[in-house]
Amino acid sequence: VDGRVPEYLARLQDDDPTHPPEGADDLVAAVVGDLHAHTEWSDGGSPIDEMASAAQAMGHEWLAITDHSPRLTVANGLSAERLAAQIEAIDEWNSRQANGFRLFRGIEIDILDDGALDQSDEMIERLDIVTASVHSHLRMDHDAMTARLVAAVSDPRVHVLGHCTGRRVLSGRGHRPPSTFDARAVFEACAANDTIVEINSRPERVDPPDELIEIALEAGCLFAIDSDAHAPGQLEFKVLGARRAVEHGIEPDRIVTTWSSDRLLEWTSR
Ligand SMILES: [Zn+2]
Ligand SMILES: [Zn+2]
Question: In this predicted model, what pLDDT tens digit does every residue of 55-82 receive, in sequence order?
């Protein structure tokens, strides 16, 4: 109120061990899109247009709406019918925009135990962005999990591998250890099949872990800094992902969320 930063807050900020690394602000500014966001259609808290407005307000040029797939019933995953209705809603929203901002028709599709995808072929064909993630049987045996992930990221219809280890780093009830798999084999399959590796920015996920980001870099992968937002304000989580990308020295051009919507669509439709 007095126009000064309270002493207590100033001290906390000075002591902050997560002080942003040099260049983080530039990367945050360069990120113009997000490939992972939920709405009230599945387990998010807001309608499509509120997520879109928030993304525009923070300077994004595009946003992928990626609600859950049918088998994830706890998250109100979308049946083929509901996904068709959502696609219609997204198309309708886009048709009302005159400023160039664009919503992508997307999905966060469950990777089934054998690496297959949890939605009909017909519906998958209608989507701009397919992010594939594991949400079940995360404790699967190492070799079986490797085969499961390699199969999913090698599917030409998959564009992004979401939160690859499934870990949750918060202490207490929210904690979950990472899935174990041959990360080199999985990321080499990503690179060979043009599947983007997601840096999930959520503070409780921080996924992939640092050592896995290094392996994905060596394998030649592209990355997406994604918020995995379930509410409009959570789109800001991208700041945390951007800090990690800077810490790992990832070139901005290898981060597809710095690309224009046209460039991204051209690349995913190859
Ligand atoms: Zn997920
Ligand atoms: Zn998600």
Answer: 999 999 999 999 999 999 989 999 999 9
